[in-house]
Amino acid sequence: MAYKNLSEFIKDLESAGDLRRVKIEVDPELEITEIANRVMKSPAGGPALLFENVKGSKLPLLINALGSRSRMCRALGVTDFAEVARRIEVLLQPPMLSSFMDKLKKLPELAQLASFTPKTVKSAPCQQIVFQDQQASLDILPILKCWPLDGGRYITFAGVYTKDLATSRRNVGMYRLQKLDAKTCAMHWQIHHDGARHFQAYARAGQKMPVALVLGGDPALAYAASAPLPPDMDEVLFAGFLRKKSVEMVKCLTIDMEVPAESEIVIEGYADPRDLVREGPFGDHTGYYSLPEMYPRFTVTALTMRNAAIYPATIVGVPPMEDYYMGLATERIFLPIVQMFLPEVVDYHLPAFGVFHNFCLVSIRKQYPYHARKVMHALWGMGQLMFSKFIIVVDEDVNVQNVEEVLFQTGANVDPRRDCHIVDGPVDALDHAAPYLCAGSKMGIDATRKLASEGIIRPWPPLISMPDEIKNLVSSRWPQYGINID
To answer: In which element (H, E) is residue 74 found?
Structure first.
């Protein structure tokens, strides 16, 4: 199903017993983080939390809305991420053009994709309340200070809407913003992201860049903003594809930008290339603070919201946190895209402790010498997988979702001198271990069984396993043995 807005999603969570309302007054400085962190670390991610009485603000605050596998699936309208992956896989298949009937069979899929194009409306709930000029103040929002050493309060769950200066193509990213005062923020975006690319074009032209910060709406929009889509692919169109319904958009009041009509809160403004400010520190998803850097100042020109608006937020830190489940959705949904370029890939996994970029575990159908190295280099050239610090490649019969199984095969099959492959290249901006900002080394580990042509002198031993017929026999007779292993 497509949720019309965030309130519909909240009602659905509450009816499923997956949301808790907190009615006592809570402080947005550190207290909400400590509460949410304990809940996020509980089994299966804990429930979503709606704080109805936040100190210093009249707006309630929602956090951990996507912080479980079931809620992330619910947000995408599926029971399993594989359902979305299969839809993407169908779109990636080349049209069968051998006959007229084949063309007709493909038409419904193409027509369906076209129906997800965003639609513009003249009025919108997100503009029911309007603050402009001196009235447009960030002070009305319950913005969090997440961790003790943070440089200030941070907007953490906004879709950041920008446009390419040359083409006017839209990009939506999810970048943090540090509140500096009632009218300005420090806009943080890493150099590898599309928002930063748009900003650099405005900087070269000597122009201020219009930016809209969007909070709330259908949760599919929040996920789409975080998804690693190819450059110039419209995240709003992708959200329409996910929700199987186009997103209604409305024009902003003070800048040339369109935003989702059913948003909770929209902050309009601009980023000035000539006005850089200190941003940070910030307690980040790596479990460490990212250190201060200079980023552009974002100045608010308008703040609009719907009646009875709800402020969505998230926190990041030592995993697992809410962002892990968003990353898990990406891992599962984008597997067909990885397999389109690398059909030998059986599965891959980005474990929680790897914070998205430290570890990538991959199983392949190995066919020739150094096949694992070919896959490593291909992944290092594929979108945000280029940041993978350690890629471990195993054989197709290894379950990469089971980290202990991967580590067992790594310990058993790897000769460090022969099977560890170190390269230099771009790394995640948050990798504090790298010698330079955004540049360092990465390691590929070939944990596959080795072929004679890969320099094996001694025979490679077979793995211990039991025939299926014996396994099935024992399973069928198990009650007769009288052995309790519960």
So the answer is: helix 69-75
Distance CA 318, CA 29 (A): 18
Residues 58 and 137 sit within 8 Å (Cβ to Cβ): no
Query: What does the pLDDT read at residue 228?
Result: 86
Neighbouring residues of 2: CB distance < 8 A, sequence distance ≥ 6 = 77, 218, 220, 243, 244, 245
User: What are 233's two structure tokens?
Assistant: 């692919």
Q: Is the pLDDT of residue 109 over 70?
A: no
Residues 439-461: tens digit of each pLDDT: 999 999 999 999 988 888 888 88
Q: Residue 104's pLDDT is what?
A: 45
> Which CATH superfamily groups domain 6-312?
Electron Transport, Fmn-binding Protein; Chain A (2.30.110.10)
70-100 b/e (C-beta count within 10 Å ≥ 16 → b): ebbbbbbbbeebeebbebbeeeeeeeeeeee
Residue 339: predicted pLDDT: 92
Q: Which CATH number fits the domain 342-454, given the four candidates 3.40.1670.10, 3.40.190.10, 2.130.10.10, 3.40.50.720?
A: 3.40.1670.10
pTM above 0.85, yes or no: yes
Structure tokens at 323: 């962002």
User: 234, 284, 347, 419: which is the annotated catalytic residue?
Assistant: 284
- In the chain, CATH 2.30.110.10 sits at 6-312
pLDDT tens per residue across span 120-151: 999 999 999 999 988 999 999 999 999 999 99
Q: 191: pLDDT confidence band, cut at 50, 70 and 90?
A: confident
Q: How does residue 229 score in pLDDT terms, banded at 50, 70 and 90?
A: confident
DSSP 302-369: EEEE-TT--EE-----SSSSHHHHHHHHHHHHTHHHHHHH-TTEEEEE--GGGTTTSEEEEEE---ST
Query: Annotated catalytic, 139?
Result: no
- Pairing state between β 184-187 and 209-215: unpaired
Query: What distance in Å separates the CA atoms of residue 131 and residue 438, rounded to the nearest whole number?
Result: 39
Q: Residues 210, 255: contact at Cβ < 8 Å?
A: yes
